[in-house]
Amino acid sequence: MNKKCVAAKAASNTSFLCLVPHVSYPYFDVTPMFIIESLIDPVVLGGFEGLPAKPIIDILKKPEVDYINAYGHNASLNFLQVIGSKKDGIFAADCLVHTGFQQNKPLINGQNAIDAFYSWVAHTTDPLSALPSDPAAYQWVDDCPAKHGHFFPPCNHHCPIPPISSSAENTQVAGRRFDGQQAHFN
Which of 29, 160, 23 is nearest to 103 (CA)? Predict the structure, then answer.
């Protein structure tokens, strides 16, 4: 845990909160960081946030969809701390992905997480390079949820296909078929 955060929270006996990223982030005031995170991370949702750890296809009921959308909304609010930072970068896709960031998926404005991270590192470690005047130069956050009014089903059409079930027959997630055809969402 961040030592500055722990010290600040010690008097109120709430240093455990420093395990929560949006609580500890302000205390990382010197070290530049690049955050790669999904707006609707299925591992966080299924392991830490209370959704059952079932195949994704099994959780597509209205209460769970509402919960995922609320999580995506809260995650995007938490990322406001990073957006506008002059030293930190971020890549936050609206995809059901935890560690499956690849060279071809997900994409935000044609950029993948690997190239986004590389461009940020190359810029921040070059002693001749000044910080960009536009803080958003190294910040990629899907804006499609704002345009579509939801985080789930994912609106980014450049997401890796999530593991949807133990059955190879399932090719449908969140009302979309992965062969490119629309399917009915219940």
Answer: 160
CA distance between the termini of the chain: 42
The answer as to whether 95 is a domain residue is yes
Q: What is the pLDDT of residues 8-48, one digit of tens each?
A: 999 999 999 999 888 999 998 887 899 999 999 888 887 66
Residue by residue, DSSP assigns 30-55 as SS--EEEEETT-HHIIIIISS---S-
Cβ-proximal residues to 164 (8 Å cutoff; 6+ apart), any chain: 55, 56, 57, 170, 171, 172, 173
Tokens linked to 28: 């990382």
* Beta strands per DSSP E along the chain: 34-38, 89-93, 107-108, 111-112, 139-141, 172-173, 176-177
Does residue 151 sit within a domain? yes
Look at residues 120, 37, 114 and name the one whose alpha carbon lies nearest to residue 76.
37
Amino acid at 172: Q
Asked if 27 contacts 44 with a C-beta cutoff of 8 angstroms, the reply is no
Peptide bond before residue 160 is cis, with ω within 30 degrees of 0: no
Q: Which two tokens stand for residue 53?
A: 């750890």
Q: How many domains does the chain have?
A: 1
**Consecutive 10-residue runs of the chain (186 residues): their mean pLDDT?**
94 94 89 91 74 58 86 91 88 90 93 93 74 76 87 88 50 40 32
